[in-house]
Predict the 3D structure of the following.
Amino acid sequence: MTWVAVVAVVAALLVHGAAGVRAALIDPLLISWAGRTGMQIENRIAQSIEISTVKETAPPPPVDGPKKTSSRKKSSPTNRSRTIRTKI
């Protein structure tokens, strides 16, 4: 049984050694070419999709005119709803 383990360890070392030699033989120019190509693809995708990073500001709130004062009080307050629309 021990010879099977020895053969398995030797085979694993040979396979891993061959993969290391193969990786070491890859030309550095090929690696840089692959990186440049990836960057060009990413730039073209970014240019084809419009992405706006500028945040639009909300319009200033409306300025109310002078308020009229009345001598009598209202029994129930008025419920005025104001909608403020903002763009994100």
